[in-house]
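INFO  loader      accepted 1 record
INFO  loader      residues=177
INFO  predictor   begin
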Amino acid sequence: MAHFAKVENGLVVQVVVAEQDFISTGALGDPASWIQTSYNTRGNVHYDQNGNVDAEGTRGNYAGIGYTYDAQNDVFVAPQPSADHILDTDTWTWWNPTATDPVETKPVKPAIPVPVVVPVVAPVVEAIVAPVVVETPVEEVAPVAEETPAETVVEEPAIVEEPVVAPTEKANNETNR
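INFO  predictor   done
INFO  writer      dumping tokens
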């Protein structure tokens, strides 16, 4: 389920939880007047279920009744608390430049983690062919004071193929035995 805000003349008048398909039917009025909003977005930051920052915000803030929908910037903005407050367009929240209370000072947008994309590489499956090891004795050319050990020679793998026998020949060979 998703959250949708009904916007009339730039103001949010209703917020509902519904499926996009239901909104698209027009059962709640003109589907174009319903704008999706994210319950986990505030200050132009999206938070995961544990309250951790996980992505850029969707439409600035979660829409509430009385919020303004700025179609040009595609964001929801809360009502201005007082004439002293200034809209911060990085966070789409209001702040008071003359305030001494830290809650009223300019908000700082938390760093949004950059997703790490780890490519998934399918394992390469190769046929492993063990080399054939053949020991060949070394020929003695001249008498040697000490005996020379056998030398190990590594050769390419041997490929053994069975001769292809036509079925009729094979049957004839078996009957002639």
